[in-house]
């Protein structure tokens, strides 16, 4: 799933390409978007701005119309020059916004809605989001307060599950969840009631620092690979320039911890059974009462092919 940094970069690229431009064409494979376009055509409107809020991308058009998209696991925004060949087939196209020079194409977009400013506040998920870690208005103090308040109301919630809760902090995803907990030395399965104020502060500060570092605009390129602007790129949390050493624990099940040499473990966590990675030495267990320390897999499970 694209995380907040990916959507931030996508919105920035879309803003550079189509922001301030007049819409010359609109296509969609989604009936609910088509109905809105039939009643209130996009052609002739101006793209006022494109911005991200957590994992949501919002395209604002003149005349009080907003296209709100969420990529979930499979969606992506692409940018192409007019009449340039698309990298994916038309059967995967869900929405196209055309200007004189660019085509912004949403492929496999699972969530796409039109809103007015009023309906966005009343009927969408966006107003329910916690503070966006990448927002200019975000503060570490505010983020810490959100974590503390949620912990007070949900003392048994596991910290890594809370870091994924977009109503607490918006933008963090599965990769950052594991990386942030590691950087703070916090076992991801600890209950919120065991998390100290200093640990909350470190996790929020690291979240902000990691994500800001991964949205630095290091080139003039509008896209990532093949025009894809929701391309996750080489997300990095370590200081290593080696592409194979860019993350501390995520995806490194069974390998040596880069810091202490212990074996990195993985375990499914939460109602959605998301993969969580951690080092049992760098992130010691602090349980309550007789609660046992979590045990994860060490070896990567290899499944054989099914069928031909």
TrEMBL record:
Please tell me whether the keyword Coiled coil is annotated for this protein: no
Q: Does the keyword Nucleotide-binding apply?
A: no
**For the Formamidopyrimidine-DNA glycosylase catalytic domain, which residue ranges apply?**
2-93
Keyword annotations for this protein, in alphabetical order, are:
DNA damage, DNA repair, DNA-binding, Endonuclease, Glycosidase, Hydrolase, Lyase, Metal-binding, Multifunctional enzyme, Nuclease, Zinc, Zinc-finger
For the protein in the UniProt heading, the enzyme class is lyase
Q: Which reaction does it catalyse?
A: 2'-deoxyribonucleotide-(2'-deoxyribose 5'-phosphate)-2'-deoxyribonucleotide-DNA = a 3'-end 2'-deoxyribonucleotide-(2,3-dehydro-2,3-deoxyribose 5'-phosphate)-DNA + a 5'-end 5'-phospho-2'-deoxyribonucleoside-DNA + H(+)
Which InterPro entries did the record assign? DNA_glyclase_Znf_dom_DNA_BS, FPG_cat, FPG_N, H2TH_FPG, Nei2_N, Ribosomal_uS13-like_H2TH, Znf_DNA_glyclase/AP_lyase
User: Pfam families attached here?
Assistant: Fapy_DNA_glyco (PF01149), H2TH (PF06831)
Membrane-spanning regions, if any?
A: none
One molecular function GO term is: class I DNA-(apurinic or apyrimidinic site) endonuclease activity
Q: Which domain of life is it from?
A: Bacteria
The enzyme's E.C. designation: 4.2.99.18
Describe the location of the FPG-type domain by residue ranges: 248-284
One GO biological process this protein is involved in is: base-excision repair
PANTHER family, A to Z: ENDONUCLEASE 8
Family that this chain belongs to:
Belongs to the FPG family.
Q: What is this protein called?
A: DNA-(apurinic or apyrimidinic site) lyase
């Amino acid at each position: 799933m694209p995380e907040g940094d990916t959507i931030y970069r996508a919105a920035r690229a879309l803003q550079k390409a189509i922001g301030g431009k007049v819409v010359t064409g609109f296509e969609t494979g989604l009936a609910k978007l088509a109905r809105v376009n039939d009643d209130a055509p996009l052609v002739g409107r101006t793209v006022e701005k494109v911005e991200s809020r957590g994992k949501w991308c919002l395209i604002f058009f003149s005349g009080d119309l907003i296209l709100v998209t969420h990529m979930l696991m499979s969606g992506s925004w692409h940018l192409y020059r007019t009449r340039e060949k698309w990298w994916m087939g038309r059967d995967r196209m869900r929405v196209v916004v055309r200007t004189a020079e660019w085509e912004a194409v949403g492929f496999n977009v699972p969530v796409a809605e039109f809103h007015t400013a009023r309906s966005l506040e009343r009927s969408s998920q966006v107003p329910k989001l916690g503070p966006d870690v990448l927002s200019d208005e975000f503060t570490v103090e505010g983020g810490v307060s959100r974590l503390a308040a949620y912990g007070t109301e949900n003392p048994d919630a596991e910290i890594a599950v809370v870091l994924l809760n977009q109503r607490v902090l918006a933008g963090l995803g599965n990769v950052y969840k594991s990386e942030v907990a590691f950087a703070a030395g916090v076992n991801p399965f600890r209950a919120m009631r065991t998390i100290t104020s200093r640990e909350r502060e470190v996790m929020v500060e690291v979240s902000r620092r990691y994500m800001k570092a991964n949205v630095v605009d290091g080139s003039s390129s509008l896209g990532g690979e093949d025009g894809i602007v929701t391309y996750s790129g080489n997300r990095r949390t370590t200081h290593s320039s080696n592409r194979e050493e860019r993350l501390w624990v995520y995806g490194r099940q069974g390998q040596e911890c880069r810091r202490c040499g212990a074996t990195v473990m993985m375990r499914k966590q939460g109602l959605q059974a998301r993969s969580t990675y951690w080092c049992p030495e760098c992130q010691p267990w602090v349980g309550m009462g007789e609660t046992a320390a979590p045990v994860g897999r060490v070896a990567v499970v290899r499944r054989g092919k099914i069928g031909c």
